Amino acid sequence: MIDRRSLLGATVAGTGAMLLPDAARAMAAAAADPVAPYRTPYKYPKLILAGSGIPGSFDEKAVDCPFVFSANGKFYLTHVGFDGIGYQTGICESDDLINWRRLGIIMARDPDDPITRYNIACASILRENGLQSPARLIKVGGRYVAAWHAYPNAGYEEGAAVIGLAWSDDFMHWERGPVILRAEDGADWERGGLYKPTLMKDDDTFYLFYNAKTTGEPWHEQTGLATSKDLKTWTRHPGNPIIPNGPRGAPDARFASDPVLVRHDGRWGMFYFGLAYDGHARDLLALGNTLTDFRKVDEVLIDVGPPGSIDEKYAHKPSVIYHDGALYHFYCAVSGKWPNDVRGLAVARSKPW
């Protein structure tokens, strides 16, 4: 895995500037434990967002797939809602990252559109990359850009989904763009269908990380990458999948899914979730010096809870934001048994509540 020595009175390399003792200790700790900035061991005990239970509402049955950012002095959380037919995408706002106000749907299915007639799930909006940044959105050509995926059939993630982009002037009203990735154009590991995409930009290149599944039962999910210079022409990375499944006893033996990328201290961190053969999903981490070469961390970041807890079955699908000296790690928590399980959004953070 990726010796502690005393850095009291040390200098910043190449500058001659003196480090204060606290800063020196922090640097020593980071060098000795590169996972430390990513840990969020303190779970909030209740769901922060659940299915509304309102008949006919887009999120009647469940909410899923959190994506968090800041804007206009507030925090925003996009999420998909399931109504028994399919996914649609909503948004809520908060002043404290715990209490959330629903603002409604921002991407709705279109019965007249063969691609989104049952589902449209916005998974990410282009935002700042820094782990400890305010997670503000970034515009391209004066507009916000988001990545979505859509399943072709009614029901819960039925059929081979495609990935596309959408554009907005205000991040509340979105115009759907074209499909950019299809399962049939990929390799065997993704022929069963595409899942949640994360869109990001580094230098002059756009990166789209996504997970996809194999055909047949039981299927496996792994994480791949496509890149573009113009958001129009996309090229799959020749080394895909860049996050493959682990061995049978690993926490990601079946799924290595839902990648989320951040940059910290010159290194890239990829949050993702794994599904093990024990039937539980957990949030994990991989670290890399580049965006195409990652090493998995041998540690579970968010584990499932004890029987009876909100995340006794799954603790998965990460999204993170840094606020007031703490890292907040949002995830989808699932308890109970399908099809009567309870699926909602939860959060853990790096300091006690």
Automatic annotation (TrEMBL):
Q: Which UniProt keywords apply?
A: Glycosidase, Hydrolase
Q: Which InterPro entries match?
A: Glyco_hydro_32_N, Glyco_hydro_beta-prop_sf, TAT_signal
The record, for Pfam families, names: Glyco_hydro_32N (PF00251)
Q: Which residues cross the membrane?
A: none
- The answer to whether the entry has keyword Membrane is no
Residue limits of the Glycosyl hydrolase family 32 N-terminal domain?
133-271
One of the record's GO molecular function terms: hydrolase activity, acting on glycosyl bonds
Q: Which family does it belong to?
A: Belongs to the glycosyl hydrolase 32 family.
This chain belongs to the protein called: Glycosyl hydrolase family 32
Which species expresses this protein natively? Answer: Hephaestia caeni
The organism's lineage is:
Bacteria, Pseudomonadati, Pseudomonadota, Alphaproteobacteria, Sphingomonadales
